[in-house]
Amino acid sequence: EAEIHKEMAAALPCLIFAASLMLASIKSSTASRMAKPGCQETCGNLTIPYPFGIGEGCFREGFDVSCENNSVYRHNSSSRIKIYNISLLGGQARVTTLIASKCFNETGGWAWLNTGKFFTISTKANKLTAVGCNTLAFLGGFNEHRVGAGCFSMCADRRSVDESGQCSGMGCCQTSIAPNLNFSNVTFDDRFDNSEVSGFNPCSYAFVAEQDWFRFEASYLEDNKLKEKFKDGVPTLLDWVAGNEYCNEAVKNMSTYACISKNSRCITSPNATGYLCTCNNGFAGNPYLEEGCQGW
Prior knowledge:
This is Wall-associated receptor kinase galacturonan-binding domain-containing protein. The chain has 296 residues and is of the alpha+beta class.
């Protein structure tokens, strides 16, 4: 009997260690779960954290996405808004948006973006960019008001194109956009066209994209080179919020309140009108899930 007690005493530290490892593993797997339990968590190489989700019951209203050919789309591929990065902490998503184009002797094209209720085009990260000579491009849109911005690019001949890579107004121009835009439309002013420069610049382009991403190249003025290079669209940063109210209002309605982890709290979005959720100090994970924030 004494021998048995000795063996048990010797084995006890090992059992405690094994149990600790198991608990740590369970805690780690709970903390690392980003999707709602039972829902698809990845598509291609992108993790899809709740409130985003694929399929009925897997997403918060307005955050439905689809997985098609290993790519993630807002709603589905017919939206033509492909998502390639989601920041849960910062309340941002990188997506691709379309390029508007207008060629000599053709009707001007346009590109629109309807982000939906909880998403806006990041005013800090993006610029309206136009590429072309004798080109005036506009961005019209809505926040609480009807707003607009435009920029003009002028180059009389090939020699007057800026070769520095900057959007200086000589072949390329950029301008800031209004905050909290949830709908935008990129168009051209038909009073300006490429008829006098069509020999080296038959088409003009305009798009809303991350300002630090785009570097102008004079070759983009030739033929249809810019649209061929970026045929899948350009990267645009969207800001998103869990709700459009501020924290003190949001917490009054627990049926729609998003910060449901008991170790989470509400914070005001630094980039858009509304609120986000974050785990309390000492906790990590997904604050939008009931058991999402776990201690270290």
